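Email to the structure team, subject: Lipoprotein model.

Hi all, the expression group asked for a predicted structure before they design truncation constructs. Nothing fancy, just the tokens so they can compare against earlier work. One-line instruction: predict Lipoprotein, return tokens.
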Amino acid sequence: MLKRLSVVLAVVALAACGDVQEQEDAVQTEELGATESALRVCSLSCPSGYYPTWYGCDYSCGGSCSFGSNNSVNCEPIGGSFTQCGLSCPNGWHVTYKSCTSSCAGSCSFGSYNQAHCEPNINSFDACALSCPTGWRVESKACSPTCGGSCSFGSYNQVYCVPA
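Reply from the structure team: attached below.
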């Protein structure tokens, strides 16, 4: 009972200091003993070790929420394969395809992209890129419509990477 009361008091005290959702998640994470969990951040960027999955407007973050304005982001811990808002992946991961969703900032007109599917750099892999990451070499080049751009004769936007 005393532990539960102290957690409730901690949440109330933290709520008075600002970003309620992030602080509640931190308290819940501590209580459950989990190492990482999803975060809702009153900002447009995620902390190190997390990737953005959704942008939106949260009245608890302050400011107004007019159409198309964003003041918060949902962040997930980086690991395994994932799809994130943005067109690049963190170091150690590569883009396998690009797509568009209304959950990420921007509009989804024909041929536009605002999110990338990221896979870890292991074994050998196809990447939506013109070169391979450090420690890898290009084995072959190709063109894929899911990597963005047009696939005209002689153009490429995808590489097959093998260990250097």
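Confidence is low (pLDDT under 50) at residues 1-34. The radius of gyration is 20 Å. Ping us if the truncation boundaries need rechecking.
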